[in-house]
Amino acid sequence: MSDYTCHQKPAAASPTTAKTALCMSLDNDPDIVQIEFTTAKNSINNLGGVGPDSKLDQLYYKNVAVIQASGETVDLKVTVDGGSYAAHNGDRNGLHGAFGNINVRAGSSVNLKFQFVNPKYGDPMTLKKFFFSWMDLDQGKNGRSPEKVILGGGHTDVLIASDAEVISANVPCKKSAGLASDCTSQSISSTTHGTGQDNPLSPMNLTALQAARSFAVFFEDKSEFYVTLDAGEGWGGRNFLFAGMSQLVLAAYPECCPSHICKTGPEMTVQQHQQQYQQQRRQELQQDQQRKTTTTTTTTTIISPDYY
Hints:
Blueprint: H1 21-28, E1 41-45, E2 59-66, E3 73-80, E4 94-96, E5 99-105, E6 108-117, E7 127-135, E8 147-151, E9 157-160, E10 167-172, E11 184-189, H2 208-212, E12 215-222, E13 224-231, E14 237-243, H3 247-251, H4 259-262, H5 270-294
């Protein structure tokens, strides 16, 4: 076990709370392997054989991390773990700025295995400690295409911001993860509408809203982990963004939470954002109903920017 304990949904902290030794350890612990997609290269992009490459049926990222103690570089391989995979736009898979990205067609899900690989020999590499963050869990208008990440199990902790919009639920661990039959894991689901304009640009520079729609998972002594990505019924597809260490990890600890995320004051709170989106959804429903009652000609459906 680690020297510190992660917490899920702790109470909000005062913005003046000083950093503790725990917070400093998150930044400086030499055993934590920092996974970084800004310096990674997506050398194979053919998850589940959907393309756009025609190589092995996988996503392969080179140089996602360096182990401090040994200086060894780490690669990451993502493969479909049983079942099928449907993308709305496979070209969006791979890298998206500072994040990895996997596109899932609305109304479908995919079981995935993430495995760290030694680039010299191709065998699995066990990382002593690492964080893996899932960003921008939101959904389309009127609750369409909600996003859900189902963890396969084997993690130490799940970290969620104190004022999170995402919700968690207990689920059985994935059988292929090789865990006990009575093991319990978690699923994390979106609850609010979002657009491309509120997407994060950097995992270490999040707004309060972006932190509220993200979560991180802490692992110890693992070479692989399993997740299921689920895109609910709706139009097009959904992009699932992921990163390593993120500012969300700090936001999950009251004593470490960045002041611009946890502060109270004139800046809009997450609850106010939720109220704003609920009001927007009511207006959208009213507008849709008005269009239905006033339009008699054939109309063409325009896909919202929420869908990819």
